[in-house]
Design goal:
Blueprint lengths: L16 E5 L3 H12 L3 E6 L11 E5 L4 H6 L2 E4 L9 H12 L5 E7 L10 E2 L10 H14 L6 E7 L1 E3 L6 H6 L4 E3 L7 E3 H13 L5 E7 L7 H11 L7 E3 H5 L4 H7 L4 E2 L2 H7 L8 H11 L10
Parallel strand pairs: 1-2, 1-4, 2-3, 4-5, 5-7, 6-13, 7-11, 8-10, 9-12
Helix pairs in contact: 1-6, 7-11
């Protein structure tokens, strides 16, 4: 297995042209990982001049990416679906069909396609039962990308809650606005941004034969939201926010936030790690939060603080 902290392809440089449809939070991390592994990488933004530069990555306009898509050996799509369909497929389906050298497609979906399981575990073989409209759109997008499995390997990455540098609770805890919500028996499955990049590039580096494979991007320990916030507070030496019952917190939640809390499941990634030959860099939220704090320029509180 790849060692903790190691990236795929670093021992044997990859060759291939990867196009990432969507250089957002996860997409940019995948681009950096793929470039370090030896891929030739291009990625799209709506406006190529927006956002920070990515060394070693060609940035192109999403609307003008058909030529790049037509020439890619590897495609990653990170864009969320629209009501009318998946943006990448809507804009570039023709170029994908014209691509004769395509070997692998990776689509970033969500574990939300499993719906509410009452706190039970799901794994990569579990049947999707989406309960939210956004999750039904995700499942439809998965099926759209799966249509290309006659010519390329298609990996569907179902991700948990994504966190990492720039998406952490530290600023809210310092500002006194973080909430520690207690809902007995309720857990969330999460994944650090850099472990998304690790898994996607590992999959792209050794694609299976044409077909569809479901992979889970979640760490090894689902946990309650209150524990996640308490650990973040501990790391920066501040008292955790006072506990709120879910009923107290729900009165001020947006409909979107309440919809996340309406579903409860634990997600396993054991089969994914075995299939890809990886170990997570951050196997639990504890390691992931500590690494996030360091990346954000913070220092952990002294032991015992």
């Amino acid at each position: 297995m790849l060692a903790l902290g190691a990236g795929p392809g670093h021992a044997a440089r990859m060759s291939g042209r990867m196009v990432i449809l969507g250089l957002g939070y996860a997409g940019a991390a995948i681009a950096r990982e793929a470039a370090a592994a030896g891929f030739s990488v291009a990625g799209t933004r709506r406006d190529p001049s927006a956002g920070p530069p990515l060394p070693g990555v060609e940035v192109i306009a999403f609307a003008e990416a058909s030529d790049a898509v037509r020439e890619a050996t590897h495609i990653v799509s990170t864009a969320p679906p629209l009501p009318q369909g998946d943006p990448g497929l809507l804009a570039h389906r023709g170029a994908l069909r014209e691509n004769r050298g395509l070997r692998w497609i990776g689509y970033l979906s969500t574990t939300g396609v499993y719906g509410d399981r009452g706190g039970a575990w799901v794994n990569e073989t579990s049947h999707p039962t989406p309960g939210q409209e956004r999750s039904r759109l995700r499942l439809a997008a998965e099926q759209g990308w799966a249509d290309f499995a006659d010519r390329a390997a298609v990996d569907i990455f179902r991700t948990g809650g994504i966190y990492g540098p720039g998406r952490s609770p530290f600023a809210e805890i310092r500002a006194g606005t973080a909430r520690r919500i207690v809902k007995p028996g309720h857990s969330f499955s999460r994944i650090h941004r850099d472990d998304i990049a690790l898994a996607v590039v590992a999959a792209a580096s050794a694609p299976p034969p044409p077909g569809v494979r479901v992979l889970h991007l979640v760490d090894d320990e689902p946990c309650p939201q209150a524990e996640f916030i308490a650990e973040a507070a501990r790391l920066i030496g501040l008292p955790p926010p006072p506990e709120l019952t879910f009923e107290q917190a729900a009165a001020e939640m947006s409909p979107m936030a309440r919809s996340f809390w309406a579903e409860n499941r634990k997600v396993s990634s054991a089969r994914t790690k075995e299939a890809l030959g990886i170990l997570w860099r951050y196997p639990t939220y504890r390691e992931g939060l500590a690494a996030t704090l360091a990346a954000e320029g913070g220092a952990p509180a002294p032991a015992g603080a």
